[in-house]
Amino acid sequence: MTIVTAAGLTRRFGKLTAVKPLTFDLPAGKVIGLVGPNGSGKSTLIRMLLGLIRPSGGDAMVRGESIGSPQRYLGRVGALVENPAFVPGLSARANLESLARLRGLPSARVDAVLHTVGLAGRDREPVKRYSLGMKQRLGIAAALLPDPALLILDEPTNGLDPSGIVEIRSLLAQLGTAGRTVVVSSHLLSEIEAICEHLVVIRFGELLYSGPIAGLLTSGSQHVDLRAEHDADTERLATALRTQGWEVFTSTAGGVRVSAGAHDAAPINRAAHAAGITLRSLNVVQDSLEDVFLAMTGDTDQQLMAARATEAQRGGR
Ligand SMILES: Nc1ncnc2c1ncn2[C@@H]1O[C@H](COP(=O)(O)OP(=O)(O)OP(=O)(O)O)[C@@H](O)[C@H]1O
Q1: What residue ranges line ligand 1, CB within 6 angstroms?
Q2: How many A from CA of 102 to the centre of ligand 1?
Q3: Which residue, by CA, sits nearest to atom 24 of ligand 1?
Q4: Alpha-carbon distance 67 to 48, whole Å?
Q5: Closest by alpha carbon to 140, among 84, 197, 217, 70?
Q6: What is the CATH number of domain 2-218?
Q7: Among 48, 119, 167, 267, which has the minimal tally of Cβ within 10 Å of its Cβ?
Q8: pLDDT per residue over 290-303, tens digit each?
Q9: pLDDT, tens digit (0-9, with 9 covering 90-100), for 41-87
Q10: What number of other Cβ atoms are within 10 A of residue 54's Cβ?
Q11: How many CB atoms lie within 10 A of CB 109?
Q12: Which CATH superfamily is domain 221-286 in?
């Protein structure tokens, strides 16, 4: 079952096409990562899905309703899109109670969400005494008030210190229970890959990947890192492996990296031995998702960012 379907969804700001026509489906009941470097259009996409800004083209459906009529689905959607505004002198509980009243929600929801985000013991302290991580948890609590079927969190770990990031990450992993769909954006894949089952990757407005994270990793490759006993033999080792048909990515003072998997380890070792080179180390390494994406596009983020700046100046494509 899908909870969001986008078809040719596009958004321009003047000359810049911030979101190029995007077509994708988001499965219901999963934790979904929306990933892309800063300026890729993640917030713009989220704002369109929440009905905060209109698309320049295309459409999307959320829970079967067009984003042209957000009032039809927003009752069961919770979102944290920017630093939420709370009354600093009031307690977390009082802030949530007034938000619940405004939305016509039962006050029992306040206890439930305080418990979910782990603030139940500190809910009577004024928000101004809260750490950034606690404020962010309170923001997530507010987004959870309507018991949303779809929860959208835009960069919830932004600005947090490492312990705050760990705190929020473990909370996010718990939120995707009971059939709820959680969409969480980040510019750092490494920050959310462990908690997501499904991934949408956008890079400077374009869709790079949409699908299960597991599929992406298994389609990703492995490589083998080798080091000769003597660094002076590195080039000779690279040449010997190339001659035997291996694809050598790099050969630096640090060693040789070969495009190969675990089953190639023994033949590589034999090839080195046949060339009269003893190996100091041989490690089979699973490519990270970052490696997989780099291999997909071949462009670095810096190159794409420069192209985008030119596009904004020239008037787009
Ligand atoms: N209201 C706006 N007016 C003009 N340009 C905008 C506006 N909102 C966003 N943009 C531009 O659209 C592009 C995408 O921005 P967006 O904030 O959606 O990216 P993002 O992936 O969420 O990045 P970040 O993580 O830095 O917020 C950027 O180049 C940004 O400058």
Answers
A1: 13, 16, 18, 36, 38-44, 155, 187
A2: 30
A3: 38
A4: 7
A5: 84
A6: 3.40.50.300
A7: 267
A8: 666 666 655 566 66
A9: 999 999 999 999 999 999 999 999 999 999 999 999 999 997 778 99
A10: 10
A11: 19
A12: Reverse transcriptase/Diguanylate cyclase domain (3.30.70.270)
